[in-house]
Amino acid sequence: MKKVASLILALVISLGFTACGGTADSNTAPAASKSEGSISSTTDTMQSETPKNESTKSITVGVAMNAADEMRVNWLASLEAKVKDAGYTIISTNANGNANQQLADIDSLILKKPDVIIVTPTNTDVAAPGIEAIHNAGIPSIIIDFAAGTDVYDCWFGGQMVTSGTVCGEYFQSLLNADSTKKLNIGIIVGSFSMQTTQPRIDRLLEACPDLNIIATAEASFDASKAMSVTEDWLQAYPEMNAIYAFNDAMALGAIQALNSAGVNMDAFCVVGTDYLEASDEYLLSGQMAATCARDVDAETAEVLSLATKLANGESVEQNITPPQLMLVTKDTLK
Known about the structure:
The structure is a single chain. The longest helix is centred in the middle third of the chain and has 19 residues, at 160-178. By secondary structure, the chain is an alpha/beta fold. Helix 4 (124-136) links the parallel strand 4 and strand 5 (141-144). It is elongated and about 60 Å long. The strands form three sheets. A seven-stranded mixed sheet has the order 1-3-2-4-5-6-12, sandwiched between helices. It has a four-stranded parallel sheet with strand order 8-7-9-10, covered by helices on one side. The chain has a two-stranded antiparallel sheet with strand order 11-13. The protein contains eleven helices and 13 strands. It has two domains: 2-15 and 160-294, Rossmann fold, CATH 3.40.50; 28-157 and 297-323, Rossmann fold. The chain has helices at residues 2-15, 70-85, 99-111, 124-136, 160-178, 198-208, 224-237, 249-261, 281-286, 297-312, 331-334, and strands spanning 42-45, 60-65, 89-94, 116-119, 141-144, 155-157, 185-190, 213-219, 243-246, 270-272, 292-294, 320-321, 327-329.
């Protein structure tokens, strides 16, 4: 079983999954952020020949993605399917974590004159001029998840990065509630300490579970192999550690690999991730990963397309919108 699990985890590491499109996360619009990705692509999905509603204006949606990790790929695929189903056109780009490339992508999208442009910022400071350029071109914009760095956008759709701390904290608290003698000595693996929402995310975790004993924190750039190295060091330095909270599933899986290699009894160790990956299923079902949390991607993209349609038709929308609630994923929810 460990051999199979190690092979699967090696594949995860080689793919270099990142959390939510890289090293950026945000819960409020005016925040700094960074990101990394792994695949660069530009795709055009042409308008379907027979729109379902002939009275609806034909809309072209431009999308400037920050990266192509698994979650972002799934998110874009869901949006593309809904755009096609509505009889619209979508033009998407991926900056592969390169902020300057995203600026070029935005400029390219502006030249194509879409009715609305959706941006998942790669870097707040660099993305702001691009978002301002969209505004100056008279094109409505929707900013997804990460800080805009400017207030000239039409809608910011995000807030779940910090909320995940609450969801995971509530899970840890449920473990303590079930066993009054239990104590969780936890290590927290973050993506980057420089992110504006890293500390608020930890604060939310502790608000939900104030009895957590945080004995170590480290950053691993949302990378599984780096998280593995961090965990290996922790096993030497903190023998009392019995729990790890990782800011994405890739880092959680890296931690599990280190724990398995060290022969740690996983029945007595609790690993919780974030941003559910399908690669986590085997570890969740076997109990090696206790829990993670997942976004309702289809619900999100449906709402984003609704917002895009309204903006393209000249309607106003709320400037800041929180997506549907995160879902806790455990072996029980997978069965």
